[in-house]
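Revision sheet: structure tokens.
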Amino acid sequence: MSTDITIPQNLLPADGRFGAGPSKVRAEQVQAIVEAADSLLGTSHRQAPVKNLVASVQNGLKEMFNAPEGYEVLLGVGGATAFWDSAAFSLVRNKAQHLSFGEFGSKFAKATDKAPFLAASTIITSEPGSVPVPAAEADVDVYAWPQNETSTGAAAPVKRVAGANDDALMVIDATSGAGGLAVDLAETDVYYFAPQKNFAADGGLWIAFVSPAAIARIEEIAATDRWIPDFLNLKTALDNSLKNQTYNTPALTTLVMLDSQIKWINANGGLAWAAERTAESAAKVQAWAEASDIAAMYVANPEHRSNVISTVDFDDKIDATAIAKALRANGVVDVEPYRKLGRNQLRIATFVAIDPSDVQALLNCIDYVIEQL
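Predicted:
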């Protein structure tokens, strides 16, 4: 099939970025970097200007998520990948239980399961595109799962596990969900994410809401004889974050973009507004797929469909790879599926920065390309 297709200009979205991460970055965020060039960039992260920026990020997130009393916002360098190792060292006392229903949940599960100082983890799995259910265990002190599985577009409920021990921690990977999906932080003890999805910044940073119980666990484990590298020690991150700084030098442009996005979301109505906006975009994709005779939503259960990542399977007679190539040639990019799934599908991000009208335009472009193919 030829992908030498020119999509009419009137069909194209105003912005053609629909990647599952990094997200589209708004022009206002880039302008914020420009404005920070002479006063902030290239200065010490231990001094007031940068510490004030970190404090703005922390306070803005607490406002957005209506953080319960006693919850703190920690920051660290390394992204969610580094946080998995930090959590294995600093949050799990003896044993973790994981829900693994896609690529990213499985990675944290492997981290705790391989740790030589922890008991073997319980790993509850389900097929990609579905969501398993946690089960209380007497010897588990951390329950962990992704709120949103970026690789498949499946979203899991965020609620405390019924029957779990009173001191068991609920640790939620919200990397692609935070800021775009509704959540009650009181149902979690650790809600962690990176800023390159709904917060439309660059990667390499992790952010975590931690409850008083999680702070107590961090302090408890830090006081034992367990060896923890300083870079991965959440006690190090806690002590620095309470001073509005990170342990080592962060990328200041990432913090500037993150702060700008937080302010934009809060000015428009906070998390409730953001969740409504992503739901509007996701509904457009779902309605389009349900009306199609050659496409279907990959996540079969509507209750488990994400509002920030939509995965659409195509009939075998339609080559999704050809669609993605034709779209890319016209400036509509990053709708390819997660590589390890091996599906004949498109993966469409509907993060907060992506305008719902652009999502509709994308769907119109897909229809046009299919007609031409």
